């Protein structure tokens, strides 16, 4: 196994805080308040979305059809991937959204916020389905592979809940109370967490027993993601676990043999987030044509069009100006804002008084 850099893009003006991938697309968001869109097949940037007025904190794809984005103000937006138009803006959180996770079925989304609430959103009708007040600020949320369970992380603790009943199944606390920065289900009943303690801990959500400890990091673990073991022998674990760290490393782990990473690489950048995407090559052509439409560049453009119509109407009123041009057309063109009372006296006073006296004076001298 080998990792190769496919392309590098310095698209953002600030730090990247969130990333999501699905099908042929992946999206990034950060402190510059912009969402950047990329084509995973052609390996290039294809557009930007500008609607959020604060830092983008989380992103998540709903199948390959929609993108969800949350920001530091608590705004949650749903974008249609077909033409990248805004479908709905959801309001419910009173403070910044920390994390978002889409249910494997694509019907639900889970968000947590700095306002100490967790919300479940029905993506079929784009409405809030459930809200729960928490006694702590949840920083991370994620669904299990089946969607029957979900996990919430807060500082140095991880809580696992049953989706149907909402009951707490188990909670895990870091031994030294080190902050947790990332969580991911590696099996239906096993979850991995990484953070300030510079290691990854895999533990069973039913018994609380530690299944594996992945070490060898020179700094905090910032992100975790899972990837299917394609063309690779899979035994107990059907997925690889990929980690990123503040020590500039990207590592791929086989949890069947967790002692050492399968492969790792070092990058010349501070790693903040990670997402796994698998392009659908047979859909690449049609989707790329759709995303290149002008609507991708800036979503604010449709809002600016209605403003341009009333501005054009006052300028397109020629009847009043034509009447003024008969008397003094040059002056009306130079100052269209001049009132009728100012233009008329100047046109009447200049020709008559000034043209008659010179003739009379010439006759007297002759």
Automatic annotation (TrEMBL):
Region (Disordered): 282-366
WD repeats mapped onto the chain: 90-131, 173-213
Sequence ranges of Basic residues compositional bias: 319-328
InterPro entries in the cross-refs: PAK1-Kinase_Regulator, WD40/YVTN_repeat-like_dom_sf, WD40_PAC1, WD40_repeat_CS, WD40_repeat_dom_sf, WD40_rpt
Compositional bias annotation for Polar residues: 284-295
Record's compositionally biased regions (Low complexity): 301-315, 337-353
Swiss-Prot/TrEMBL keywords: Repeat, Ribosome biogenesis, WD repeat
GO terms classed as biological process: ribosome biogenesis
One Pfam family matching this protein: WD40
Presence of the UniProt keyword Repeat in the record: yes
Domain of life per record: Eukaryota
Name listed for the protein in its UniProt record: Anaphase-promoting complex subunit 4 WD40 domain-containing protein
Biological source species: Arcella intermedia
